[in-house]
Request: fold
Amino acid sequence: MTLAVATYMMYQTRKRIVRIMSLEMQPLSSIVQCMKCGFKNVREFKRGDFVFKETDEPCPKDSQKMVISAIYREVKDKEKAKEIGY
Reply:
């Protein structure tokens, strides 16, 4: 009986690992905002980004420095994530 339970648990663990490995990483995005005029731009996350970091890219409207105001992950497949339990 112990051998049967151990085999079943190993099978379930392997099945869960295969499901997790099949998920692809969702892209990260950063919102860059001008503090003077409020212009917002969404761009791909770059390594080293953090909230309130001043970026090198100037605002296209008034040429002021822009600040990262938010970083988020876009979830494209909500139903798939719910199936797996995330």
In short: The chain has a mean pLDDT of 83. The first strand starts at residue 28 and ends at 34. The chain has two helices and four strands. Residues 2-22 form the longest helix (21 residues).
